[in-house]
Amino acid sequence: MRPSALPFLLVATLLPAQAPAKASKPAPAKAAPKAAPKATPESEAARRTLRETLDAIDSAWFGQPYQGISSVEMQGTLGIALSGALVNQKVDSLSQGAVKGNSQGGAANLRVHGTYFANGDFKTDLAGDFGTILYTRRGNRGFIYSKEQNAYTTRVDLAASDAPLTYMSWFRQTLNDIKAVYIDAPTFQASLAGEDTIDGHAVQRLVFNAPTQGWDAKKREQSLAQSLGFWKRGKLEVAVDKATKQPVRLDFRNDEQGVHTRMDFSYGAGNRLQSVNINNSSRGFEGPGWLRVGYGGDGRMSNVAGELASQDKKVSFAMDLNWSKTRTAADITALPPAGATKRGREEMETQLLVGLAAKIFDLQRAGLNLRAVAIGGK
Fold first, then answer.
1. For residue 267, which of 278, 255, 277, 259 has the smallest C-alpha distance?
2. Is 0.70 topped by the overall pTM?
Protein backbone atom coordinates (compact mmCIF):
# COMPACT_ATOMS: atom_id res chain seq x y z
CA MET A 1 0.00 0.00 0.00
CA ARG A 2 1.43 3.35 -0.99
CA PRO A 3 0.26 6.39 0.98
CA SER A 4 0.77 8.58 -2.08
CA ALA A 5 -1.68 6.55 -4.18
CA LEU A 6 -4.92 8.14 -5.34
CA PRO A 7 -7.11 8.06 -2.22
CA PHE A 8 -10.28 6.79 -3.87
CA LEU A 9 -8.44 3.69 -5.06
CA LEU A 10 -7.52 2.86 -1.47
CA VAL A 11 -10.28 0.28 -1.19
CA ALA A 12 -9.21 -1.51 -4.34
CA THR A 13 -5.50 -1.52 -3.52
CA LEU A 14 -6.13 -3.16 -0.16
CA LEU A 15 -8.02 -6.07 -1.69
CA PRO A 16 -6.12 -9.23 -2.67
CA ALA A 17 -4.97 -9.52 -6.26
CA GLN A 18 -7.45 -11.19 -8.57
CA ALA A 19 -6.94 -14.70 -9.89
CA PRO A 20 -6.48 -15.01 -13.65
CA ALA A 21 -9.62 -15.90 -15.57
CA LYS A 22 -9.75 -19.34 -17.21
CA ALA A 23 -9.79 -19.04 -20.98
CA SER A 24 -12.72 -20.77 -22.65
CA LYS A 25 -10.90 -20.95 -25.99
CA PRO A 26 -7.34 -20.43 -27.19
CA ALA A 27 -6.33 -16.80 -27.29
CA PRO A 28 -5.77 -15.36 -30.76
CA ALA A 29 -2.22 -14.80 -31.88
CA LYS A 30 -0.87 -11.44 -30.88
CA ALA A 31 -0.03 -8.94 -33.55
CA ALA A 32 3.61 -8.03 -34.00
CA PRO A 33 4.53 -5.14 -31.69
CA LYS A 34 4.72 -1.73 -33.28
CA ALA A 35 8.15 -0.28 -33.79
CA ALA A 36 9.15 2.33 -31.24
CA PRO A 37 8.92 5.90 -32.56
CA LYS A 38 12.26 7.14 -33.85
CA ALA A 39 14.09 9.29 -31.32
CA THR A 40 14.58 12.91 -32.33
CA PRO A 41 16.50 15.72 -30.64
CA GLU A 42 13.13 17.22 -29.59
CA SER A 43 11.80 14.00 -28.07
CA GLU A 44 15.08 13.39 -26.27
CA ALA A 45 14.99 16.93 -24.87
CA ALA A 46 11.42 16.38 -23.58
CA ARG A 47 12.36 13.10 -21.91
CA ARG A 48 15.47 14.63 -20.39
CA THR A 49 13.48 17.54 -18.96
CA LEU A 50 10.86 15.21 -17.47
CA ARG A 51 13.65 13.18 -15.87
CA GLU A 52 15.06 16.38 -14.34
CA THR A 53 11.57 17.26 -13.06
CA LEU A 54 11.11 13.88 -11.38
CA ASP A 55 14.57 14.22 -9.82
CA ALA A 56 13.61 17.69 -8.53
CA ILE A 57 10.40 16.25 -7.04
CA ASP A 58 12.40 13.50 -5.37
CA SER A 59 14.74 16.03 -3.77
CA ALA A 60 12.25 18.76 -2.77
CA TRP A 61 9.08 16.83 -1.92
CA PHE A 62 10.68 13.79 -0.31
CA GLY A 63 14.44 13.28 -0.06
CA GLN A 64 16.50 13.87 3.06
CA PRO A 65 13.70 14.16 5.69
CA TYR A 66 12.77 10.52 5.01
CA GLN A 67 16.27 9.10 5.33
CA GLY A 68 16.18 6.25 7.86
CA ILE A 69 12.36 6.40 8.10
CA SER A 70 11.17 2.81 7.88
CA SER A 71 7.42 3.07 8.62
CA VAL A 72 4.39 5.34 8.58
CA GLU A 73 1.13 5.17 10.52
CA MET A 74 -1.80 6.49 8.50
CA GLN A 75 -5.20 7.25 9.99
CA GLY A 76 -8.16 9.02 8.47
CA THR A 77 -11.36 8.88 6.46
CA LEU A 78 -12.56 8.54 2.89
CA GLY A 79 -16.08 9.54 1.87
CA ILE A 80 -18.39 9.67 -1.15
CA ALA A 81 -21.60 11.71 -1.03
CA LEU A 82 -24.37 12.01 -3.62
CA SER A 83 -27.25 14.46 -3.25
CA GLY A 84 -30.87 13.33 -3.22
CA ALA A 85 -31.58 15.70 -6.12
CA LEU A 86 -29.11 13.81 -8.30
CA VAL A 87 -30.65 10.44 -7.44
CA ASN A 88 -34.18 11.71 -8.06
CA GLN A 89 -33.17 13.24 -11.37
CA LYS A 90 -31.74 9.94 -12.54
CA VAL A 91 -34.87 8.02 -11.46
CA ASP A 92 -37.02 10.50 -13.39
CA SER A 93 -34.79 10.19 -16.46
CA LEU A 94 -34.67 6.39 -16.48
CA SER A 95 -38.45 6.07 -16.03
CA GLN A 96 -39.18 8.86 -18.54
CA GLY A 97 -41.15 10.68 -15.86
CA ALA A 98 -43.30 7.70 -14.86
CA VAL A 99 -41.66 7.42 -11.44
CA LYS A 100 -40.79 10.30 -9.15
CA GLY A 101 -37.82 9.71 -6.91
CA ASN A 102 -37.89 10.48 -3.20
CA SER A 103 -34.26 9.80 -2.33
CA GLN A 104 -32.34 11.51 0.44
CA GLY A 105 -29.12 10.79 -1.44
CA GLY A 106 -26.41 8.17 -1.26
CA ALA A 107 -23.15 7.96 0.62
CA ALA A 108 -20.27 5.61 1.35
CA ASN A 109 -17.73 6.23 4.10
CA LEU A 110 -14.57 4.42 5.07
CA ARG A 111 -12.29 4.72 8.10
CA VAL A 112 -8.68 3.72 7.64
CA HIS A 113 -6.04 2.96 10.25
CA GLY A 114 -2.87 1.32 9.07
CA THR A 115 0.84 0.97 9.62
CA TYR A 116 3.00 0.50 6.55
CA PHE A 117 6.69 -0.38 6.39
CA ALA A 118 8.80 0.58 3.40
CA ASN A 119 9.83 -3.07 3.03
CA GLY A 120 6.22 -4.14 2.39
CA ASP A 121 5.12 -5.30 5.86
CA PHE A 122 1.83 -3.72 6.92
CA LYS A 123 -1.35 -3.91 8.96
CA THR A 124 -4.52 -2.16 7.80
CA ASP A 125 -7.90 -1.85 9.49
CA LEU A 126 -10.77 -0.75 7.25
CA ALA A 127 -14.27 -0.06 8.56
CA GLY A 128 -17.30 1.50 6.95
CA ASP A 129 -19.88 1.04 4.24
CA PHE A 130 -17.61 -1.26 2.23
CA GLY A 131 -17.32 -3.63 5.20
CA THR A 132 -14.84 -4.23 8.01
CA ILE A 133 -11.55 -5.79 6.96
CA LEU A 134 -8.23 -6.50 8.65
CA TYR A 135 -5.38 -7.12 6.22
CA THR A 136 -1.83 -7.75 7.41
CA ARG A 137 1.45 -9.18 6.19
CA ARG A 138 4.84 -9.74 7.81
CA GLY A 139 7.48 -11.20 5.55
CA ASN A 140 5.86 -14.06 3.63
CA ARG A 141 2.99 -14.61 6.09
CA GLY A 142 -0.26 -12.76 6.72
CA PHE A 143 -4.03 -12.91 6.43
CA ILE A 144 -7.15 -11.08 5.28
CA TYR A 145 -10.10 -11.14 7.69
CA SER A 146 -13.66 -10.02 6.98
CA LYS A 147 -15.86 -9.28 9.97
CA GLU A 148 -19.06 -9.60 7.89
CA GLN A 149 -18.08 -13.07 6.74
CA ASN A 150 -16.31 -13.95 10.02
CA ALA A 151 -13.77 -15.60 7.77
CA TYR A 152 -10.13 -15.22 6.79
CA THR A 153 -7.57 -16.46 4.30
CA THR A 154 -3.83 -16.81 4.88
CA ARG A 155 -2.95 -16.67 1.19
CA VAL A 156 -1.68 -13.13 0.70
CA ASP A 157 0.47 -11.50 -1.94
CA LEU A 158 4.16 -11.31 -1.15
CA ALA A 159 6.14 -8.10 -1.02
CA ALA A 160 8.39 -7.22 -3.93
CA SER A 161 11.78 -8.90 -3.74
CA ASP A 162 13.49 -5.52 -4.21
CA ALA A 163 11.42 -3.68 -1.58
CA PRO A 164 13.42 -0.82 0.00
CA LEU A 165 14.12 -0.46 3.71
CA THR A 166 13.36 3.26 4.06
CA TYR A 167 10.79 5.66 2.67
CA MET A 168 13.50 7.83 1.18
CA SER A 169 14.28 4.90 -1.13
CA TRP A 170 10.57 4.01 -1.44
CA PHE A 171 9.62 7.40 -2.88
CA ARG A 172 12.58 7.25 -5.25
CA GLN A 173 11.49 3.80 -6.41
CA THR A 174 7.96 5.12 -7.02
CA LEU A 175 9.31 7.93 -9.19
CA ASN A 176 11.46 5.40 -11.03
CA ASP A 177 8.24 3.53 -11.90
CA ILE A 178 6.97 6.72 -13.56
CA LYS A 179 10.27 7.15 -15.40
CA ALA A 180 10.04 3.59 -16.68
CA VAL A 181 6.63 4.27 -18.26
CA TYR A 182 7.03 7.82 -19.60
CA ILE A 183 10.77 8.07 -20.28
CA ASP A 184 12.36 4.65 -20.77
CA ALA A 185 9.56 2.74 -22.51
CA PRO A 186 8.53 3.49 -26.13
CA THR A 187 4.82 3.76 -25.20
CA PHE A 188 4.65 7.55 -25.13
CA GLN A 189 5.68 9.85 -27.95
CA ALA A 190 7.46 12.84 -26.38
CA SER A 191 7.65 16.38 -27.73
CA LEU A 192 8.25 20.01 -26.71
CA ALA A 193 5.34 22.47 -26.87
CA GLY A 194 7.14 25.77 -26.49
CA GLU A 195 7.77 28.14 -23.61
CA ASP A 196 5.26 30.23 -21.65
CA THR A 197 4.67 32.14 -18.41
CA ILE A 198 2.20 30.82 -15.81
CA ASP A 199 1.56 32.74 -12.59
CA GLY A 200 4.92 34.45 -12.89
CA HIS A 201 6.81 31.22 -13.63
CA ALA A 202 8.79 30.92 -16.87
CA VAL A 203 7.93 27.39 -18.00
CA GLN A 204 8.83 24.82 -20.64
CA ARG A 205 5.88 22.78 -21.90
CA LEU A 206 6.28 19.02 -22.42
CA VAL A 207 3.83 16.62 -24.11
CA PHE A 208 3.73 12.82 -23.77
CA ASN A 209 1.10 11.05 -25.86
CA ALA A 210 -0.01 7.39 -26.01
CA PRO A 211 -3.49 7.36 -27.64
CA THR A 212 -6.27 5.32 -26.07
CA GLN A 213 -9.59 4.02 -27.31
CA GLY A 214 -12.69 6.16 -26.85
CA TRP A 215 -15.04 6.18 -23.88
CA ASP A 216 -17.58 3.33 -23.76
CA ALA A 217 -20.60 4.58 -21.79
CA LYS A 218 -22.06 1.04 -21.58
CA LYS A 219 -19.05 -0.41 -19.80
CA ARG A 220 -19.95 -0.96 -16.13
CA GLU A 221 -16.90 -2.82 -14.84
CA GLN A 222 -13.25 -3.43 -15.60
CA SER A 223 -10.23 -5.23 -14.20
CA LEU A 224 -8.34 -3.95 -11.18
CA ALA A 225 -5.25 -3.54 -13.38
CA GLN A 226 -7.17 -1.19 -15.69
CA SER A 227 -8.46 0.87 -12.76
CA LEU A 228 -5.04 1.31 -11.17
CA GLY A 229 -3.10 1.63 -14.43
CA PHE A 230 -5.12 4.43 -16.05
CA TRP A 231 -2.03 6.70 -16.00
CA LYS A 232 0.02 4.36 -18.18
CA ARG A 233 -1.68 5.54 -21.37
CA GLY A 234 -3.22 8.82 -22.43
CA LYS A 235 -1.94 12.34 -23.03
CA LEU A 236 0.15 14.16 -20.44
CA GLU A 237 1.07 17.83 -20.76
CA VAL A 238 3.41 19.29 -18.15
CA ALA A 239 4.51 22.90 -17.68
CA VAL A 240 7.88 22.84 -15.89
CA ASP A 241 9.43 25.82 -14.07
CA LYS A 242 12.65 26.49 -15.97
CA ALA A 243 14.50 27.56 -12.82
CA THR A 244 13.42 24.95 -10.23
CA LYS A 245 12.40 22.15 -12.65
CA GLN A 246 9.25 21.73 -10.52
CA PRO A 247 5.89 21.13 -12.25
CA VAL A 248 3.69 24.24 -12.32
CA ARG A 249 0.76 22.80 -14.24
CA LEU A 250 -0.18 19.30 -15.33
CA ASP A 251 -2.94 18.29 -17.73
CA PHE A 252 -3.76 14.59 -18.16
CA ARG A 253 -6.45 12.81 -20.14
CA ASN A 254 -7.27 9.17 -20.83
CA ASP A 255 -10.37 9.10 -23.04
CA GLU A 256 -10.97 5.38 -22.56
CA GLN A 257 -11.19 5.79 -18.78
CA GLY A 258 -13.10 9.08 -19.03
CA VAL A 259 -10.34 10.88 -17.14
CA HIS A 260 -9.42 14.51 -17.88
CA THR A 261 -7.85 16.57 -15.11
CA ARG A 262 -5.77 19.73 -14.84
CA MET A 263 -3.65 20.40 -11.76
CA ASP A 264 -1.94 23.64 -10.71
CA PHE A 265 0.81 23.29 -8.11
CA SER A 266 1.97 25.73 -5.45
CA TYR A 267 4.98 25.42 -3.18
CA GLY A 268 6.15 26.47 0.25
CA ALA A 269 9.52 26.63 1.99
CA GLY A 270 12.25 24.53 0.43
CA ASN A 271 10.15 24.03 -2.74
CA ARG A 272 8.03 21.45 -0.92
CA LEU A 273 4.58 20.82 -2.36
CA GLN A 274 1.98 22.86 -0.45
CA SER A 275 -1.22 22.56 -2.44
CA VAL A 276 -2.75 21.44 -5.71
CA ASN A 277 -5.79 23.09 -7.26
CA ILE A 278 -7.72 20.74 -9.52
CA ASN A 279 -9.98 21.43 -12.47
CA ASN A 280 -11.67 18.10 -13.10
CA SER A 281 -13.38 17.43 -16.43
CA SER A 282 -13.60 13.67 -15.99
CA ARG A 283 -16.86 12.14 -17.19
CA GLY A 284 -19.63 12.35 -14.63
CA PHE A 285 -17.50 14.30 -12.18
CA GLU A 286 -16.89 17.70 -13.69
CA GLY A 287 -15.98 20.25 -11.07
CA PRO A 288 -13.25 21.69 -8.87
CA GLY A 289 -11.01 19.93 -6.41
CA TRP A 290 -8.04 20.48 -4.17
CA LEU A 291 -5.21 18.79 -2.31
CA ARG A 292 -3.46 20.24 0.75
CA VAL A 293 -0.29 18.96 2.40
CA GLY A 294 0.83 19.88 5.92
CA TYR A 295 4.34 19.37 7.31
CA GLY A 296 5.79 18.90 10.76
CA GLY A 297 8.87 20.60 12.15
CA ASP A 298 10.93 17.66 10.88
CA GLY A 299 10.06 18.55 7.28
CA ARG A 300 7.98 15.43 6.74
CA MET A 301 4.33 15.31 5.64
CA SER A 302 2.09 15.24 8.71
CA ASN A 303 -1.31 15.38 7.03
CA VAL A 304 -2.81 15.16 3.57
CA ALA A 305 -6.39 16.09 2.67
CA GLY A 306 -8.28 16.52 -0.56
CA GLU A 307 -11.64 16.81 -2.25
CA LEU A 308 -13.25 16.46 -5.66
CA ALA A 309 -16.68 18.04 -6.02
CA SER A 310 -19.31 18.63 -8.65
CA GLN A 311 -22.82 20.02 -8.35
CA ASP A 312 -24.30 16.90 -6.75
CA LYS A 313 -21.32 14.76 -5.77
CA LYS A 314 -18.31 14.91 -3.52
CA VAL A 315 -15.37 12.60 -2.84
CA SER A 316 -13.17 13.64 0.07
CA PHE A 317 -10.38 12.25 2.21
CA ALA A 318 -8.23 13.31 5.14
CA MET A 319 -5.22 11.38 6.44
CA ASP A 320 -2.84 12.02 9.33
CA LEU A 321 0.68 10.61 8.89
CA ASN A 322 3.07 9.61 11.67
CA TRP A 323 6.53 8.55 10.46
CA SER A 324 8.99 6.49 12.50
CA LYS A 325 12.51 5.05 12.45
CA THR A 326 11.97 2.73 15.42
CA ARG A 327 8.79 0.71 14.80
CA THR A 328 9.35 -3.03 14.47
CA ALA A 329 7.38 -5.87 12.94
CA ALA A 330 6.11 -6.68 16.45
CA ASP A 331 4.03 -3.49 16.30
CA ILE A 332 1.79 -5.00 13.63
CA THR A 333 1.41 -8.47 15.13
CA ALA A 334 -2.16 -9.78 14.70
CA LEU A 335 -4.12 -13.03 14.62
CA PRO A 336 -7.54 -13.87 13.12
CA PRO A 337 -10.29 -13.81 15.79
CA ALA A 338 -11.06 -17.10 17.49
CA GLY A 339 -13.94 -18.87 15.79
CA ALA A 340 -13.37 -17.32 12.38
CA THR A 341 -13.60 -19.70 9.43
CA LYS A 342 -10.52 -20.25 7.28
CA ARG A 343 -11.18 -20.08 3.54
CA GLY A 344 -9.25 -20.44 0.33
CA ARG A 345 -7.93 -17.33 -1.37
CA GLU A 346 -10.22 -17.50 -4.41
CA GLU A 347 -13.41 -17.97 -2.35
CA MET A 348 -12.51 -15.17 0.05
CA GLU A 349 -11.51 -12.86 -2.76
CA THR A 350 -14.72 -13.45 -4.69
CA GLN A 351 -16.87 -12.65 -1.65
CA LEU A 352 -14.96 -9.45 -0.96
CA LEU A 353 -15.22 -8.33 -4.58
CA VAL A 354 -18.93 -9.18 -4.71
CA GLY A 355 -19.53 -6.91 -1.73
CA LEU A 356 -17.40 -4.13 -3.19
CA ALA A 357 -19.06 -4.42 -6.60
CA ALA A 358 -22.53 -4.32 -5.02
CA LYS A 359 -21.74 -1.10 -3.16
CA ILE A 360 -20.24 0.50 -6.26
CA PHE A 361 -23.30 -0.58 -8.27
CA ASP A 362 -25.54 1.18 -5.74
CA LEU A 363 -23.48 4.34 -6.24
CA GLN A 364 -23.59 3.87 -10.04
CA ARG A 365 -27.39 3.76 -9.91
CA ALA A 366 -27.32 6.90 -7.82
CA GLY A 367 -25.35 8.69 -10.49
CA LEU A 368 -21.63 8.23 -9.70
CA ASN A 369 -19.44 7.54 -12.74
CA LEU A 370 -17.31 4.71 -11.31
CA ARG A 371 -16.66 1.33 -12.89
CA ALA A 372 -16.85 -1.66 -10.58
CA VAL A 373 -14.00 -4.15 -10.21
CA ALA A 374 -14.59 -7.18 -12.42
CA ILE A 375 -15.16 -10.41 -10.52
CA GLY A 376 -13.35 -12.38 -13.20
CA GLY A 377 -9.74 -12.15 -14.35
CA LYS A 378 -7.35 -9.25 -14.27
1. 277
2. yes
